[in-house]
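URGENT: need a sanity check before tomorrow's submission.

F., can you look over the GntR family transcriptional regulator record below? I want to be sure the sequence and structure line up before it goes out.
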Amino acid sequence: MDSDATSLDRSALVDETANAIRARIMSGEIPIGAQLRQAELAARLGISRTPIREALRQLQAGGLIEVLPRRGAVVRVPSPWEVREAYEVRAELEGLACERAVRRVTRTLLAELRGTNDVLRANERPPAPPGPGAPVSPTTLANDRFHTLIHEMAGNERLARTIREINEAFPRNVSALVLQDDPRHRADNLAEHERIVAALEAEDAKLARREMRDHVLAAGEQLARWYERRTATVFRG
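Structure tokens as predicted:
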């Protein structure tokens, strides 16, 4: 029993460590292309190197990091084709979630969706991108909440979990940078959100699915182009 308990405790610590490192990568605190030095991570998280080593293996298996010759573990830089493939799948799943949400949408939920769009509209000219470790911007939080609210309305946890897994393959701060870099993309993003809300309000399931699908595909294309422009210069460390 003691051995089993120790094993469970060790596994829980590895999972917790992997989640902590993943959160730092997703926020941009550890940027894409950066080296992941076990000693530094152990000191930062206040634990030994053993769970760090196991957590890095877990993140490597998930595709978020890779091990390169002479550099060791680094945050993996996705290729543009990977982004396009992932977003093609995500578009279909989010379209399904939006179609399902039509059956459960209420005035209160519509008002919350519009509230997230109000935040996006109020930040049409966002400040310069924050540095690593800075708080998540209201724009990013509002954009994420718009999508997760629809996932919740869909009422299918497996569907929502699969979408999350796709999202977690790519650092979230990069998506925020894409919006910050392109005023036209920000305007298009808001307009697409508003069309999705209109389709939900009209209880038009087919239109809601199509609008969400097109929205996610457009976002994926913008993200893929961002990686295309920066692949050669993104490595640090």
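My own read: The chain has two domains: 2-75, 80-230. The longest strand covers residues 65-68. If you see anything odd, call me.
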